[in-house]
Amino acid sequence: MTIQEKMLEARPAPKSTVGPVAWLRANLFSGPVNTVFTLLGLYLLYLLLTPTIQWAFINADWIGTSRDDCSREGACWVFVNARLGQFIYGLYPGSEIWRVNLTFATFAGLIAWLAIPRLPYKRWVAVATLVGFPVLAYFLLYGGHFGLRVVETHRWGGLMLTLVLAVVGMVGALPIGIMLALGRRSQMPIVKSFCVVFIEFWRGVPLITVLFMASVMLPLFMPTGVSVDRLIRAFIGITLFQSAYMAEVIRGGLQAIPRGQEEAAAALGMGYWKRMGLIVLPQALKMMIPGIVNTFISLFKDTTLVMIIGLFDLLGIVQAALSDSRWLGFALEGYVFAAFVFWVFCFSMSRYSQYLERKLHTGHKR
Amino acid sequence: MIDNNTMARLMPVILLTLGATGLAQASTLEDVRDQGHVRCGVNAAQPGFSALDDEDNYRGLDTDVCRAIAAAVLGDAESVRYVPLDSVERFTAIQSGEVDVLSRTTTWTSSRDTSMGVNFTGVSYYDGQAFMVASDLGVNSALELDGADVCTQSGTTSELNLADFFRVNDMSYNPIVFDSPEQAIAGFEAGRCDVLSSDASQLYSQRMQLPDPDSAVVLADIISKEPLGPAVRQGDDQWFNIVKWSLFAMINAEEMGITQANVEEMLDSEDPDIARLLGRDGNYGEGMGLEADWAYQIISQVGNYGEMFDRTVGDGSEFKIARGLNALWTEGGILYAPPIR
């Protein structure tokens, strides 16, 4: 009888249970039905991807300056390349583009500061982002002070306009939305009914109608010669519309906070604003992140509707470029480019929200 | 060019209800001089008529009309603020004073002229519905299209015109209706139909979107009247005259052979007509509140009608649209401008 004196070396798990092969077997080829479907899926993917890759990369033309440089066998990225400046900055004068760059670099810097946990002075940076930055952005983008020349809003366009609209909509809608949500839960009848009517009205009409009214009907009600800038009309329309949606998302979050929380705060002698600001909202906002980001992403995409009031956002400027007689027939390339840019922005927002959720996770999820 | 949707049909009702017609106006000319530019309502994207090029400029026949007005009024063709307008929005924009002139491939029709609160000042382009066929089909006339599959766009007058044309000529056809010009040309390219029918100006730009534009031809037959022209607000006759005569000046200049290149020499011409047009003899701008050299400014900065046509939609452009109806009356077209005297 032998006695095993030493522990046996741990042996690697059998090949059939770990590693890529095992993963494939477990997930893709675990039975005849799954195997057939896997193969079918791969075949469909092959059918779909081959022409796409052929078109977008292999047969595509990348360099050149005019439509003659495109073979027409694949995508003509020359078109997007030649128009890139216009797609990003719209009709913003070439010599002033640094102002747009500076504005968005500042914004990206501020957001990055807020997003990276190690950096200090978060509170001050947050105040700068919400209060200081809009003022700075106005002076930089519009100009008219400090020796900067005025760039009127009809020259704004492209990605820059899309971002401006989205950021203004978001920054404006969140506080108004919070106020409306609190108002709708209020005991005061006038405040409550105002908020209910406001929310139900703006939520009840499509954004396209709001913009359309702002651009077609509003000028008829104004005295002749008085006209509100189109961009301002769009800002107001989008912000009011979005705040109604935001209010309902926030109200949903507020309702998820047990009543005991507020009652306990009241028992400690806190007033209404302290109860809300210190106890209820911090817990509620955390839970609302998916909803809020969802609303933001949909707003970001909804900004393309400003096209109907004659503002050239990213999609609008792409469409305008498609009708240039020197570049006719490259619609697919233009739309693919616009879709890609939108996807990049929306996807990053969605990833950031997931990160935020993890960071703020304090065991409230069930 | 007519978008046959409900909003467009409701528009006159709305305008009238609001009592928007006949608003007392300050002089548009004074406003334009004060603001330093002409606000011109244009199409955001209509190849050959108004389209953005890669240098951020609008180019096209409609926008050149705006430039001519700016040259006449302000002496600078570049003093134009383009306001891109939707097809429904356009009449409100001109009504409410958001734009000074509307030059947006707008068909001059009686209902628009009488109930939209606008006045059309003339015709800058005689358009009409036409047919495009594959060139290897060997068709030379629209009357040979019996039994054809015809691609067209929904929601436009094209559908209606098409039905009328085939019924009147006792021919049959099979309509294939698409929602947008891009889809229609894609359908044509894919061989879904033998014929594509739309306004001629649009057909030429759709033709350019084919991989090989020479594989299709636009037939000479025109089956509907679509006169496109600039429009102004009702109630300011002085401004109406300025816009009207800016276009007439360009047509007259072509008739007299004055071009952008030779306008300086023409200043010394003995021809009394030319001297009157260029402001060397008498002051024909005075009646409109303009300088005597208003027409000279138009021709030296924008050119005559023929030059404008060639540059934007004619032989000098990608579209190579024949002058056809848009030729001078002396050259077989119907372009005729009253004399300046």
Tell me about this structure:
The complex is a heterodimer of chains A (366) and B (341). By secondary structure, chain A is mainly α. Among the domains of chain A are: 26-60; 84-92 and 151-315, MetI-like (MetI-like fold, Orthogonal Bundle). In chain A, 68% of the residues lie in helices and 0% in strands. Chain A has 13 helices and no strands. In chain A, helix 6 packs antiparallel against helix 7 and helix 6 packs antiparallel against helix 12. Chain A is globular. The model of chain A has no long low-confidence stretch (mean pLDDT 87). With 341 residues, chain B is α/β, with parallel strands linked by helices. Chain B folds into two domains: 28-124 and 229-320, D-Maltodextrin-Binding Protein, domain 2 (3-Layer(aba) Sandwich), CATH 3.40.190; 136-225, D-Maltodextrin-Binding Protein, domain 2, CATH 3.40.190.10. In chain B, 36% of the residues lie in helices and 16% in strands. Chain B has helices at 6-17, 28-35, 61-74, 89-95, 110-115, 157-168, 181-189, 200-208, 237-256, 263-266, 272-277, 294-301, 305-312; strands at residues 38-43, 51-52, 58-59, 80-85, 101-102, 118-120, 125-127, 129-134, 148-153, 173-178, 195-199, 216-218, 226-228, 231-233. In chain B, the strands form five sheets. Chain B has a five-stranded mixed β-sheet. Chain B has a three-stranded parallel β-sheet with strand order 4-1-5. In chain B, a hairpin with a 5-residue loop joins strand 2 and strand 3. In chain B, helix 3 (61-74) packs across helix 9 and helix 3 (61-74) packs antiparallel against helix 12 (294-301). Mean pLDDT of chain B is 87; it is low at 15-25. The A-B interface holds A 72, 82-83, 86, 91, 154, 215-217, 219-222, 224-225, 227, 307-310, 312, 316-317, 319-329, 331 and B 14-15, 18, 20, 23-26, 31, 44-48, 51-54, 56, 59, 81-86, 88-89, 92-93, 95-98, 182, 205, 208-211, 317-319. Chain A: The chain crosses the membrane at residues 33-53, 98-116, 123-144, 156-182, 194-221, 276-297, 304-322, 328-349. Chain A: GO terms for molecular function: transmembrane transporter activity. Chain A: Its main location: membrane. Chain A: This is Amino acid ABC transporter permease. Chain A: Residues 159-353 form the ABC transmembrane type-1 domain.
